[in-house]
Amino acid sequence: MFFSLLPLPAIYFGAGQFSLIAELAGTFGAEVLVVTGRHALEHSGRLSSLFDALLNAGMHLSHLVVDREPSPELIDSAVSTYRDRSIDVVVAIGGGSVLDAGKAISAMLLYDYPVERFIEGIGNAAQKGFEPHDGRKIPFIAVPTTAGTGSEATNNAVISKVGRHGYKRSLRHSAFVPDIALIDPELMVTVTPELTAASGMDTCTQLLEAYTSPFATPYTDALAFSGLEYFSRSFLPACTDRSGDSSVRGDIAYAALMSGIALANVGLGIVHGFASSVGGLFDIPHGVLCATLLAEATRENIAELRLNMPDHPALHKYARAGALLSGVIAEDVASGCNHLLEMLEEWQELLRFPRLESFGVAIGDLDHIVGLTRSKSNAVQLDPAAMQRILFNRL
């Protein structure tokens, strides 16, 4: 057995941990850049209390608002604004887009180059002047307010440019794993049911795809399965009648954290392959895309495994996940896989995940999308026809 592991952030997990931010940020220096979303923290009063705590600790404060998935223009503009302020630490508090923006800014503040110079796979390397990032960065603290991407534990920041020649690609280095991840479920209790469902399905997708990755290890299997256990007992309550319960939110936050650690080490599957291609062409929230594609993608993976590799370990993992998520003891691998598909379909209908056509995707776009989609970490290699079926069935 051979495997390597990325570093972990220092993790502070639990209700009330938000109060530690000023103290933790102060260990890096006096100049702090706080990156947030536009509304949630401010409306709750937490933003003003954080600013007071930082200022009372003698820190000098800059504040950037991010209200969309980070584009190269957003990152370059922020870096240009704050490069000369000798920032000692970047603190990002928000959903996955905010965390990715903060992570990318911390990675670029020491450079005069545009961020596109270091983004993976956005075109011809020679034409773009691509070069690997050397990992130097400003210390970074990640504080998620949604349970979804697991960005608080990953080594990449997703950067998006939407349009016909757009992309959704990663700025990546092992050093970009946050220095500190602070996860406080109390920050998540006011998240809307729609966002809870979408971000939760991103977590579920990441757990399943990491669990069945061909690069999975016993370590990542343990993390992914543990995440699925906590996810299974609290996902629907978090979306419905117990959304204000911090213990329920804590279960999903834990699942998201496990998904982030697992995916950073073994990669993700075809749904996230589509997230890169579809997400670059159409303005569709990442969690929504995961939610609407997961059942169909899992169906195609299972069908391919059943047909050509019936003893493949991934098929047994799908069956174990099906028994766990459905709460039904599986008589055999086939029934376990069926339980998984039934559960994913049930969530899809109950939570009314939108179809692709509502974001402008049409049947004429499918060839182009499939041609752009790559997924070396999927449970099984899918041919273009299978990839087309996944998309067509969710138009």
- Counting DSSP H or I runs of 4 or more residues, the number of helices is 15
What number is the mean pLDDT? 94
- What's the CATH topology name of the largest domain? Dehydroquinate synthase-like, alpha domain
**CATH class term of the largest domain:** Mainly Alpha
Number of strands: 8
Share in β-strands: 5-15%
What structural class do the secondary elements suggest? Answer: alpha/beta
Given the C-alpha coordinates, what overall shape results?
globular
Gyration radius over CA: 20 Å
Q: Which sheet architecture does the biggest sheet show?
A: 6 strands, parallel
Query: What's the architecture of the largest domain in CATH terms?
Result: Up-down Bundle
Helix residue percentage: 40-55%
Number of individual domains: 2
Distance between the termini: 42 Å
Major sheet strand order: 1-8-5-4-2-3
Order of helices and strands: EHEHHEHEHHEEEEHHHHHHHHH
Low-confidence stretches: 123-127
Per CATH, the superfamily of the largest domain is Dehydroquinate synthase-like - alpha domain
Structure write-up:
A six-stranded parallel β-sheet has the order 1-8-5-4-2-3, with helices on both faces. A two-stranded antiparallel ribbon has the order 6-7. Strand 6 and strand 7 form a beta hairpin. The protein is globular. With 395 residues, it is an alpha/beta fold. It has two domains: 10-188, Rossmann fold, CATH 3.40.50; 193-392, Dehydroquinate synthase-like - alpha domain (Dehydroquinate synthase-like, alpha domain), CATH 1.20.1090.10. It has helices at 21-26, 40-44, 46-56, 72-82, 96-108, 125-128, 193-211, 218-239, 246-266, 270-281, 286-308, 313-326, 333-350, 366-372, 384-392, and strands at residues 10-13, 31-36, 60-65, 89-94, 140-144, 156-161, 167-172, 180-183. The relative contact order is 0.11. The chain is built from 15 helices and eight strands.
